[in-house]
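User: What would this chain look like folded?
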Amino acid sequence: MTVTGQAAAWIGAPPPAFVVNRPALVDRLEAATQKRVVRIVAPAGYGKSVLLAQWQRAHPERRTAWVAARSTDDATRFGRRLAEAIELIVPAMAQGALAHLRRDGAALGEDFLAIVLAELSYAAPVTVVVEDLEVLASPVVLDELGLLAERAADGVGFVFVSRDDRLPKTLRLRLRDEVAEIRQDTLALSWEEAGEAIQRVAGQTLHPAQVQALHSRTEGWAAGIQLAALSLRDHDDPDRFVEQFAGDDRHVADYLSGEVLALQSPEVRDFLVRVAVLDRLSGPLCDAVTGGTDGQRTLERLDQQSLFIRPLDGRRQWYGYHPLFRDLLRFELRATRPGVEEDLLHRAAAWHLEQGEADDAAEYLLRANDWAAVIALARAEGGRYFERGEATSVLRWLGEVPSDVLLADPDAALVKVTLHTMCGSSMAAQELLDRLESSVTLDAGQQALAATNRAGWVYYHLPPAAAHAAAETALGLLDGDTDLSDTVLLDVLTPAALRSVATVSQAVACWSEADHAGARARLATVIDEPGPVVWLVHALGELAWVAVATGHLRLGLATARRALDVAEEAGLGHHTGTAMAHLALARAHRMRGEDVAGHLDTGLAQARLNQRTRVLSLEWAERADLALGEGRTGDGLGQIASAQVAAGPPLAPIVEAELAALEVRLHLLAGSPSSARAAVERQHGLHTSSVAAAAAALAVATDDWPALRKLVDDWDVVDRDEPVARWSRGLAAAVLADREGDRRTALALVAEVVADAEVEGAVRPFVDGGPAVLRLVRAHYHAEPTPFLRRLVEDVPPVSTRGSAEMVEQLTERELLVLRYLPSRLSNADIAARLYVSINTLKTHIKNIYRKLEVGDRGEAIARAEELGLL
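Assistant: Here's the prediction, encoded as structure tokens.
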């Protein structure tokens, strides 16, 4: 990957020949880099970049990543160049980092920061240099850069460079004395260095008194010294020149105009003024703008003459003006050649488009106020940018277009609405779409686009019912009699794509309200009909989630893997559309008692790329369930508390139901049935199978058998193809039958659930059933010891902290854990190995268990523990 723009400023390029060598200052910077952060703060022209170039040249062994901020940067654009800069020292790093860079442009994101920190740690010792931070508009990115510095491993340092104090906050590092500063007074040239600089640039040696006078008037400002030396080249009377020269801005501008530009040939002056419209200069680009043929030779000659340009790369293919000189030249252009600037900007844009650099082209078109061209470019390039995960760039172009211009062009406004939706800023999309619909009458195709966008907001803030209605409107228009074949947006949203988007959105609305059958039916139509690959990936991922959530684990696993395979083949392996496939894999593995962390983290990271709040809300439920399965009640309840106090759109009804059910189970595991009952009483939303199963667990734990009877009788699983519901009801019915003295029916019901669940490899329903279910499972195991049953018995569930009121001395948590293994056929040596203890330690635990239960052997201990409700 190549480094673009100013991300490569000074990389490999020696300092300009005319600059003064300052070894003491270089040594000071090197000493400063022994701390975690170095802040270099000084106005333009004080030699900040020159110092860094000299430092790099003096220490070529140092691994350094360089990136410069731009005024047009949002978080996504800056993060991309930061990753590219780091890739120069950590090969193949950028692709992995960029896959986790947030797409909404609002922040780099925790996942991106984590990868950058890991790669920098791998490359240590390494220094990251970030220049021009004063132009960075995003305070969030500044804060994230501060977090990078604070969290970085030993050997990873940062140099932050700015014209003012708009720098990353590093308070913790400052308190630890890990921050060094180099400011204007340190960067200012001494009078001796000023004399050397004048001699190098002007070719004249001044008297020390004359040098001191110039130094005094410029206060050691390197650019001012250079300006003075350039003017002095052709001045016959050095004394008079020194007497008249002043270092304030007005006189500097006067000298630049009257002394520097005036001394150039008409051809060079014309060249300088015309190419001043450019942000970066290259020979071919300059030729395209001026109509000349010797742009590269002219740039090299100007560089040799130290005429306020500097190379931006080691091969001297790209150059940049000194900001003060560039600003003066642009003023000169507007004053002496009115109306020419717009033409030059269009030439620059055309050249960049020929190079395939639409982003740079857009910048010049925006400066030319050519809104029609910007809109046309957004339409032409928006699809490609979206597919690359860079839709925020196009959104920023359109953000510069005046509202009245945008609203006068409904298609253009809809492009912006769609980009907002794609990037996760759905509220901004809704505001713009509401304004558009109130100001103009949309045709059928535009109405379909608008309704499809509204349906897509189900992922963000729109209630499921409203999203369902919007999708119905979109599909009605798309499937109606009107010919919408010309309805194409961003080259990717064709009528077929819109149909897929609306249908998937409707399916999401269905599962949000626990209508799994409706979700399955709609997703099947997207999967069965050929359409855009990206929406096939979305549909497969959603279908995998619905399958797993209802207990079809094999189907869910196969569908999720198909989604990821399709995405990988299409180059969409890191697309946000893969999020649900990863989350489906995570839940399926958890239902099977397997490791889930990798898929869970990946799925959430993909959803965070465009902040799909409906998907991200699943994190609380998934992590709470993971904590429940591992017996971490505090962590699980903490996740639920976070969900309850989180600001933002209301949770999907099904997520609220999942959280309520999990809260009940976590309180029961913690030995607090009263808190569990309060959680049940607070639940007034969807009555899903998970809510019913949690209520059944509460009824069993509190010996509320009438309540359990009512739950079992009212539990409708006949017309629902949901194995999870069948398993939960069957186990609850088995416990009830056992409590009513019908052990044969109880074991028959357990055997039926075991046979059904074994097909899917599901073990979690038995763990969630609690001690009453596990007692029946163990009885069934002793009658028919199959490998699946052995796993259910030997995979110990979390240990409850609740003891038994009938015991004089309670078992410790460790003893409770050992007790859970006793019903299995594991030997003492096997149990010791699983618990990572010695056989003697295990025997001590077992001896204490027998004593506290007042029994003499393993069989009696199991029977007594079951009697006391400990197993």
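The first helix runs from residue 23 to 32. If you want, I can go into more detail on any region.
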